[in-house]
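look at this stuff:

>
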Amino acid sequence: MKYLNLITLIGLMLSACAADVKVKTDPINEAKTREVLDHHLQTFQQNDLEGVMADYVEESVLVTSDRTFTGLKEIRENFVNAFGALPTKGTVRDARGFTSST
């Protein structure tokens, strides 16, 4: 019983200490967010791999409906595959996946 009380007391002390920890967060900069989003969409539409990758850092995580990509190597792999599957500007794909230039 003594040990249970001691463990409970330690737990309460730790949780009280954790409650005093304040996490500093920067306010959201809407203009910067819009700038990054616009850049990302523009470079993605142009199939510009290097332009898209400029929006990521090694610590980035990209979550898609199929998989989670961690780090620059995996994220690059995702966009290489996406650009290979999507039509480029001036290219039309029909329902069967055949391409033709416009």
Q: What stands out?
A: Strands lie at 61-63, 68-70, 91-93, 99-101. The two ends are 80 Å apart (CA to CA). The longest strand covers residues 61-63.
